[in-house]
Amino acid sequence: MDRSDIAFLSASELASAIESKQVSPVEAVEAYLERIERIDPNVNSYITVLADDARRDAKSAEAEIQRGQYRGPLHGIPIALKDQIHTKGVRTTDASKIRTDFVPQEDATVVVNLKNAGAIILGKLNMSEFALGDPQSSAFGPARNPWDLERSPGTSSSGSGAATAARLCATSLGEDTGGSIRGPAANCGLVGLRPTWGRVSRYGVDGAGWSVDTIGPISRTTEDCAITIGGIAGYDPKDPYTRQVPVPDYRKTLTGDIRGIRVGVVRELFDTEELGLNPQLRQAVLTAAGLLGELGAEVKDVSLPLAAQCGYITRAMTHVERVSLQPDWLRERPQDYHHNTRVAFMTGNLLPAQVYYKVLKLRDMVRQQVLELLEDVDVLVQPTMGNTADVINLDARVGSQEQAKRALATGAFRGPYSLTGAPALSILCGFTSEGDGALPFAMQIAGRPFDEATVLRVAHAYEQASSWNTRIPPVAQT
């Protein structure tokens, strides 16, 4: 196989090629490093590239496979990590001036798990400063969307979305608080899975909102997503919030058969006026839901009364939790934050205790509504975002009522599952009709806690029937 073709294989296809020895891990790593050097100056998805380490680990993986010691579908697969995930001996910056020189003394548990599975770490990826959600707030400059370099790849796992879409890694890890896996997946035409809260260890991961943070994959296909989550999930005694729940072989659950699966379409999240939902995107998701019905699923409308308020609830709760993690920096080094981060943290610091208490009660109400719906249906579907990727404005400053209202409304699409702790996945379901400048649309599929398998199964069946993911971003083709 020509080396230039390797990066265009999905992670699953590359895994098969490595297992059969058609491609070596060394060839795969070199293919990605060449692309990173050539393409990433425009995309800006990486903060740190670990070229020497990746080459060393690739040689080791190749030797193991040659000896017949193949570890599984992540063995020899080049992967990249959001830069809030600790890596031993490698700086972990949170995309902030404050953390530029921070070098962890041990790997996060997800990194340990990936290395045990034989994955090769290519580097650390760009993000919004401290995972807050402004694309322009990174101390290293914003990552760019490979579909249109003037647009955001989504936040806060911006580099994870951009690098995966641009074929600068085979798969990646992001972190999702209020939607930071699902948003970049939606903007970049990828598959992003927020796992159940407690499914994946957060030990060694810099927090954003302790009661909602999750680590999960951003991948090109559902199968890639399945093998990535399979490599990192499981109980960890170092993280008391992880659950001792068996981890299935997610890849084997991708049967393509969804006959009899009950699908609930959350009607409140198709309101074009209150939520500012793009009508074309709305129709794309409804068409996708209809295709699930054609595949044998039982599709019906359902109601989630508090859906439209979930953005407000999530933001109020997580802003308080975020600032509580770093009060000393806010007092002693406020000038070292990006302006937007500083304003958001100061706002969180000023929210009264009764507001936080109220949103916690509202969170319980949302959780109850979602879980009751999931007794009647197997999965819930709705848009992942209200619109396509925004144009990046480096001069944008937080503070305007219009900007705040739009951000809070957008949070309604992903907030219900952040608040519930249920698994939720974003998958490509169409494009704008803008010719060569077309941008991705995304559908969100959510399921019962610890039932990622059903969510992935539905997503995979849709993906196989629609084939939207055969399109490649313009930047990736250069």
Task: Write a concise synopsis of the structure shown.
With 478 residues, this protein is α/β, with parallel strands linked by helices.
Task: Give a verbal description of the structure.
By secondary structure, the protein is of the alpha/beta class. The protein has one domain: Alpha-Beta Complex (Amidase signature (AS) enzymes), CATH 3.90.1300.10. It is built from 15 helices and 11 strands. The chain has helices at residues 3-6, 11-19, 25-43, 51-66, 109-116, 158-165, 182-188, 222-232, 279-294, 310-324, 327-332, 339-350, 353-376, 401-420, 452-466; strands spanning 46-49, 78-82, 120-125, 171-176, 191-194, 214-219, 262-266, 298-302, 379-383, 424-431, 440-447. An 11-stranded mixed beta sheet has the order 1-3-2-4-6-5-10-11-9-7-8, sandwiched between helices. Helix 9 (279-294) links the parallel strand 7 and strand 8 (298-302). The longest helix is centred in the last third of the chain and has 24 residues, at 353-376. The chain is globular. The two termini are 19 Å apart.
Annotation field: number of helices: 15
Rg calc: 21 Å
Q: Kindly report the average pLDDT value.
A: 95
Classify the beta-strand content into a percent band: 5-15%
CATH fold-level topology: Amidase signature (AS) enzymes
Taken in chain order, the helices and strands follow as HHHEHEHEHEHEEHEHEHHHHEHEEH
Task: Spell out the blueprint of helices and strands.
Blueprint: H1 3-6, H2 11-19, H3 25-43, E1 46-49, H4 51-66, E2 78-82, H5 109-116, E3 120-125, H6 158-165, E4 171-176, H7 182-188, E5 191-194, E6 214-219, H8 222-232, E7 262-266, H9 279-294, E8 298-302, H10 310-324, H11 327-332, H12 339-350, H13 353-376, E9 379-383, H14 401-420, E10 424-431, E11 440-447, H15 452-466
Parallel strand pairs: 2-3, 2-4, 7-8, 7-9
Antiparallel strand pairs: 1-3, 4-6, 5-6, 5-10, 9-11, 10-11
